Amino acid sequence: MSALTGILYAFLAAYLGGWYTGFWSGNFSFLLFVLTMVTLCFWLAERFHFEPKRAVAAAQLLASDAQRRQALSAQGISRVDGDVESARQEILRQPWWLDWTAGLFPVILAVFLLRSFLFEPFKIPSGSMVPTLLVGDLILVNKFHYGVRLPVINKKIIANNDVKRGDVMVFRWPGDTSIDYIKRVVGLPGDQVSYLNQRLYVNGELVPVQAQGDFYDESSMTYRPRFTEKLGDKEHQLLVDPQRSPLFFPNRKDGPFPFQENCKYSPEGVSCKIPAGHYYMVGDNRDNSGDSRFWGFVPDENIVGKAFFVWMNFGNLKRIGAFN
Questions:
Q1: Catalytic: 29?
Q2: Paired residues of 306 in beta bridges
Q3: Shortest CA distance to 240 belongs to which of 276, 288, 170?
Q4: Cβ pair 278, 105 in contact under 8 A
Q5: Is residue 275 within 8 Å of 193, Cβ to Cβ?
Q6: Which of 77, 167, 206, 294 is deepest in the core (most CB within 10 A)?
């Protein structure tokens, strides 16, 4: 069993190493599920086989020592050498390969349940959600806000809150579901969403914005106009770049995206009719975000959860707190 444990850890190291160096893409949810199942098997083996076996051996040692002492006592020998208690503790001690498998099961199980059904941490890797979220923000995502989903297969089994316009959502990118994206929901199923001349329209109505002065974008080291936009019942901030062209073109690297026929592209921008069971996602950094305007709609089964809290930014502790 110790050899088997070593082989399993070697496979884990190879998997993590290949993932880190980019030889293949990893799936942390699947990895955590596998680790939970493997350590569960070791924990069950320890609980119902190895631990009782060690207990029997320890009891036999005590019984043998008692018989030895009794025999020596009958011969008039009252002092007997040997520390039987130390030997007993050594027999009962959990071997390293169980300590590093069965011993880790409760911790891995707690992390798996917490991450799968309650909250999951993410790190913001790009500036597509500036000024709401900055590069380096460590955020929490509520996994049960939109309903309880089975881990790994992401199938919803219990419904909860409906998706609302203005929510900041983490989802699996339709182009590669192993990659998580974070954007703002601007369109719900059945909506007509248009982004024309750097202005957002929902169902033919212009979404109101109010100028808030310039914002210094550290990633590009430029000042850009900042606005407050009211989408749904909440306000949030966004950036526009007046020097950017409003032209949009679908990402054709992997062919047309599903329901691309629902979208019309023009020199002014793009207008799309959102199909049932799908959402339209756009970044708050409107002219520096790869989003639904380019690669299409996000199906409901790709939802990961609702982002709601910055729990750390090591470069700026003032970032900690809730956001809209």
A1: no
A2: 142, 169
A3: 288
A4: no
A5: no
A6: 167
Residue that has been written with the tokens 């082989």 in this structure: 7
78 is catalytic: no
Catalytic-labelled residue, pool 183, 194, 292, 306: 183
pTM for the model: 0.84
Please classify residue 15 by burial: count the beta carbons closer than 10 Å to its beta carbon, then call 0-12 exposed, 13-18 middle and 19+ buried.
middle
Residue 291: count of CB within 10 angstroms of its CB: 21
Give residue for tokens 């601007």: 186
Residue 229's Cβ-side half-sphere holds a number of Cα atoms within 13 Å equal to: 29
- Paired tokens of 51: 């631990």
Count of other CB atoms within 10 angstroms of residue 127 = 20
Cα R_g (the chain), whole angstroms:
29
Q: Which fold has domain 124-322?
A: Umud Fragment, subunit A (2.10.109)
- Find the mean pLDDT for residues 242-269: 80
Q: Which residues on adjacent β-strands are paired with residue 291? A: none
Band of residue 247 on the pLDDT scale cut at 50, 70, 90: low
* CA-closest candidate to residue 138, choices 124, 128, 127: 124
Residue pair 121/311 in contact (Cβ under 8 Å)? The answer is: yes
Active-site choice (29, 116, 128, 194): 128
**Residue 44 or 249, more confident:** 44
d(C-alpha 257, C-alpha 255), whole Å: 6
C-alpha 60: how far from its chain's center? Answer: 49
